């Protein structure tokens, strides 16, 4: 799969927004996990939002990454949510029953194309 990158920025209200791009799979999750946990523990935001608009693929390792970071955030009283997952990523989270955990609707988002 391709490389994954992330950009984190702290908001004025104390929240942290993290944009993730690429694939969340066995070749990328370890680096992303370390970086996300570093941001979480260093900045201690009241809210951490992961924007997955540009995530093209996610396997079980990617799902485990999200669950693990969610747990770490909860342990330090940080709210952790996922926003804008691609249709593929949303489907993965819906099938595994995790949409509610990440603050997502349980139905697939509207397709990005229209006829």
UniProtKB/TrEMBL annotation:
Domain of life: Bacteria
Species in which this protein is naturally found: Actinoplanes subglobosus
Domain STAS: 5-115
Coiled coil regions in record: none
CDD domains linked: STAS_anti-anti-sigma_factors
Pfam families assigned to the protein according to its UniProt record, in alphabetical order: STAS
Similarity comment: Belongs to the anti-sigma-factor antagonist family.
Official protein name in the record: Anti-sigma factor antagonist
């Amino acid at each position: 799969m391709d490389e994954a990158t992330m950009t984190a920025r702290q908001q004025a209200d104390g929240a942290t927004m993290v944009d993730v791009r690429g694939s969340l799979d066995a070749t990328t999750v370890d680096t992303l996990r370390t970086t996300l946990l570093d941001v979480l523990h260093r900045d201690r935001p009241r809210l951490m939002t992961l924007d997955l608009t540009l995530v093209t693929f996610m396997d079980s390792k990617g799902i485990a990454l999200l669950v693990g970071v969610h747990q770490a955030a909860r342990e330090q009283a940080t709210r952790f949510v996922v926003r804008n997952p691609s249709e593929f990523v949303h489907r993965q989270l819906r099938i595994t029953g995790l949409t509610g955990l990440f603050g997502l609707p349980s139905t697939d988002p509207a397709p990005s194309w229209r006829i």
